Amino acid sequence: MSALARLLFGRRARLRWIHLILGGALAMPYVLVGSVVVGPVTGATDVFGSLPLQLASFGVGLPLAAVTSLFPLTRPLESAAVRWLCGVDADRLALTPARTRDEKGRTAAWFTLHLGFGGIIAGMSLALPPFAAVLIVLPVLAGLRDDRLGLPEVLDHTWALALAPVAGALSLVALAGCAAGCGALLARWAPPLLGPTPRERLAAAEARAADLAVRNRLARELHDSVGHALSAVTLQASAARRVLDSDPEFVREALAAIEDTTRRTVGELDAVLGVLREGDAPGTAPAPTLAADLDGLLRRTRAGGQRVRATVDADPEALPPLVSREAYRIVQEGLSNALKHAGERAAVQLRITVTGGALEITVENPVDGPAPSRAGGGHGLRGMADRARLLGGTATAGPTGTQTWRLHATLPMTGPVGQDPYDRPRRRGPA
């Protein structure tokens, strides 16, 4: 019994009832227009004094409602009402104006159903409650049995009079049942009629995938840039502190490297954050490349006391810009890992060569025992693999032998080229 009461009078049923009443209110102007047509055709002077003529006016007005539903804001407004009043999930509804013929046709069908069911339920909601109230109190108030109320003659019988309250209560329950049933039907039909088309779903999925790709790449940019800078600055500051009194020249070089590293990192951070700010243009600081900053990267790494032996058998200026940019980040991450895990003054081997139309990067450094691990770590290695994969290449890292860690990446000079991480793709809707 409680389940039935909740189904007929629960919060969701009441909200859907309100949705139907709103549909009835929207239908009233169309009914008035319909009465202007029905009156002269039938010769009636009082259209609203006859139930058949009222229904005829209602039937004439619904096609007019279907035509006016082509107004662009109809679908988003109806979808918003269905979402809040009918309890339909937002992702099952389209919140954009209908553009194609199919979308407009489905919107017109929905609007007609909403106003049709709403007009019927609204009319019943106006007529049935007063009539039911009269039936319920009829046995108690004999004055209500006046002929002027137009009550059926059967109510003059004692048995009928005794059953009048039951009939009144049942009529209210029937009204609630009709409202709940119509509301459930509209909630069920809303997704097919107001929901996005397959093309809209595809466009939304593409937009989400593009945004996710940008976010992932920006996360890699922040990890590689800021992570490397913090590792380098920490090592440089530590080395400067140890020789502060004995080697002032080294301290000056370390401080200069810290200043250069932090200045460049702030510029890169500003560029990345500029992409994240909706509506802002990307920052003015260019993303670093091998051609622009390989020598500076090596200099700043060595300023902390790390010995880096670099062999560059490739012309950085001749590399494609995106290959040069991704290669720079891979080299930066390899040196950053060496800074973290190699011993003091350990020698790091860096080789950059071009072999068979592909740029090959190799970074080798000693490690003291197994490579250390930390909670949440490993993002840099995954980021390098992602960068290489977007260019159609590969990147692997792992121990070779007992105390050596080796990073090797191959980046094709031609082939698939990933999107520039500093370019935010424009969202495209259906054509």
TrEMBL record:
Keywords: ATP-binding, Kinase, Membrane, Nucleotide-binding, Phosphoprotein, Transferase, Transmembrane, Transmembrane helix, Two-component regulatory system. It comes from the Bacteria. It catalyses: ATP + protein L-histidine = ADP + protein N-phospho-L-histidine. One of its GO terms (molecular function) is kinase activity. Its EC number is 2.7.13.3. Residues 215-280 form the Signal transduction histidine kinase subgroup 3 dimerisation and phosphoacceptor domain. InterPro entries: HATPase_C_sf, HATPase_dom, Sensor_HK_TwoCompSys, Sig_transdc_His_kin_sub3_dim/P. Residues 411-431 are annotated as: Disordered. Residues 325-412 form the Histidine kinase/HSP90-like ATPase domain. The chain crosses the membrane at residues 20-41, 53-73, 109-142, 162-187. Pfam families: HATPase_c (PF02518), HisKA_3 (PF07730). This is histidine kinase. It comes from Streptomyces iakyrus.
